[in-house]
Automatic annotation (TrEMBL):
One of its GO terms (molecular function) is G protein-coupled receptor activity. Keywords: Membrane, Transmembrane, Transmembrane helix. It comes from the Eukaryota. It comes from Adineta ricciae. The chain crosses the membrane at residues 20-42, 54-77, 97-116, 136-153, 183-205, 247-266, 286-306. This is G-protein coupled receptors family 1 profile domain-containing protein. The lineage of its organism: Eukaryota, Metazoa, Spiralia, Gnathifera, Rotifera.
Length: 332
């Protein structure tokens, strides 16, 4: 009776995992691709891309698009026909994980550097504000991109398909590979970037509060001089505040969506040698699918965060939409 009950539970859990791959993954893929493409269009506008933080956002959006295109199609295929080609084909497995982890590491560290840029630009010290520049942003992007691809090149030698003793079939083929890759991914792509994002985000908030307290005595005097005019300085300050809000909300989303996977990755690493029942394996497979879906949400929903919390981003998007509608009317 107990075996029948476990078998029933396993079937339910496996069915839920399959539904996650089929519907949630497809939802994330469609909305994520559309959002990432719109991000590239809006953030590449001259009015925005002169800001180094926007340069980081633009590059991160490009790599997030790569994450969705590399990581999700195989999961969608698995949900539709029940077979993931990366689980059975060795080269699909190696190339998918190489590009997926390289893109994901690059994207995470670009947001870290964006948070660092916000901290520098909001600092009252001139020396630290000098680190907020487009030239430094371009160099940082090239360095992050190169290091991520070099570090994950070992995946071609470590990963293999058709494994039966691993949490997923496309995984590290030896014990040492699994330990190294699980810990390396959890720390370099999730834990350390999340901690640095939160640190620089908190420091940025502190800088902003210090600046606000410093200018409060002058606010009343300025408002008595002019109630309606907006100086170029106030517009720049509004733009900077908008970018900071966009970054802080994205940092929170990425942290919330990434931490569960990192924790479960550590759990899988240190329970590799534990004998597990079929029910426990089914539960772990369900958690793996759910955690992977959460990480893709963090990568695919940036556009919607920017639209809701970024005034300058939203205004640029609306202006582009109006321009597109005007051009369509002219053609008709």
């Amino acid at each position: 009776m107990s075996n029948l009950t476990d078998e029933y539970r396993i079937n339910i859990i496996n069915n839920v995992s399959s539904q996650i791959n089929r519907y949630l993954t497809l939802f994330i893929f469609l909305f994520g691709i559309i959002g990432s493409l719109l991000n590239l269009v809006v953030l590449s506008q001259p009015v925005l891309r002169g800001n180094p933080c926007v340069v980081y956002f633009l590059a991160s959006s490009a790599f997030s698009l790569g994450i969705l295109l590399v990581g999700l199609p195989s999961r969608i295929i698995s949900g539709l026909i029940g077979t993931d080609p990366t689980n059975t084909n060795s080269w699909f497995c190696k190339f998918r994980l190489f590009f997926l982890y390289s893109f994901r590491t690059t994207s995470a560290w670009l947001i870290v550097f964006a948070a660092f840029d916000r901290w520098c630009s909001s600092n009252r010290k001139v020396y630290q504000r000098r680190f907020s520049s487009c030239q430094i942003a371009y160099r940082s992007i090239l360095i992050i991109y190169s290091l991520s691809f070099i570090l994950w090149f070992e995946g071609f030698f470590c990963y293999e398909a058709n494994l039966t003793t691993a949490p997923v079939k496309c995984y590290g083929k030896t014990y040492n590979c699994r330990i190294f890759n699980d810990i390396f991914y959890s720390t370099s792509t999730v834990a350390i970037p999340s901690i640095l994002m939160l640190i620089f985000g908190s420091l940025t908030i502190r800088n902003i509060n210090q600046i606000r307290r410093a200018i409060e005595p002058f606010v009343a005097r300025i408002s008595t001089i002019s109630h309606t005019s907006r100086t170029p300085r106030s517009l720049v300050r509004r733009s900077e505040s908008s970018l900071t809000r966009m970054l802080l909300f994205q940092v929170c989303l990425l942290t919330v969506c990434s931490i569960p996977q990192a924790m479960h990755q550590f759990y899988l690493t240190f329970t590799i040698d534990v004998q597990k029942s079929p029910l426990r394996l089914a539960i772990e497979n369900f958690i793996v699918n759910l955690n992977f879906s959460l990480t893709y949400i963090g990568n695919g929903m940036a556009f919607y965060i920017y639209t809701l919390n970024g005034t300058v981003f939203r205004q640029t998007l609306i202006r582009l939409i109006k321009l597109a509608v005007r051009q369509l009317k002219c053609r008709q």
